[in-house]
Amino acid sequence: MNKFGFQISTTRSIDLDTADLTAAERLLEAEPSLKACIGCGGCTATCTAAEFVDFNIRRMHTAFVRGQQEGLREQLNRCMLCGKCLLVCPRGVHTRSVIMVMRKELTPEEK
Ligand code: SF4
Ligand code: SF4
């Protein structure tokens, strides 16, 4: 079935008092436009990758800024960096840059 449009995420609870937000702070510092995100889901609804695979860019960056980075690296590899999400964002969030910063943050440093 060809998936299109918005999906309802399952309910989750996040304790921001105990979450490690250091990577999120680095992301917001590197790409401050993400602070303007209103969570509208326009990026997800128009995402090229989401038409073919299980991928939700809004869920990714929302989870990341809440300190939930487990399993994101693998999912972020599904992004093709086409930039379509960037074109539709009503808040001017540079989503492609957000993805690249998240990938960098989630890539283990080579020793
Ligand atoms: S389209 Fe822009 S404002 Fe809407 S959820 Fe995506 S990044 Fe946030
Ligand atoms: S850049 Fe990535 S997240 Fe944005 S529309 Fe393209 S595949 Fe989707």
Largest sheet, described in full?
Answer: none
Order of helices and strands: HHHHHH
Mean pLDDT over the full residue set: 90
User: How many β-strands, per DSSP?
Assistant: 0
Question: What percent of residues adopt helix (DSSP H or I)?
Answer: 40-55%
Q: What is the global morphology?
A: globular
- Going by helix content, strand content and strand pairing, the class is mainly alpha
Ligands in the structure? iron/sulfur cluster
Radius of gyration over all CA atoms, rounded: 14 Å
- Beta percentage is under 5%
* Unreliable residue stretches: none
Summed up, the helix count is: 6
Beginning-to-end CA distance, first to last residue: 44 Å
Structure description:
This protein is mostly helical. It has a domain at 37-106. The chain is 41% helix and 0% strand. The protein contains six helices and no strands. It has helices at 22-30, 42-46, 57-65, 72-76, 84-88, 95-106. The model has no long low-confidence stretch (mean pLDDT 90). Bound molecules: iron/sulfur cluster (2 copies). One iron/sulfur cluster binds next to helix 2.
Give a brief outline of the structure.
The protein is mainly alpha-helical.
Keywords:
single chain; 111 residues; mainly alpha; 6 helices; 41% helix; binds iron/sulfur cluster
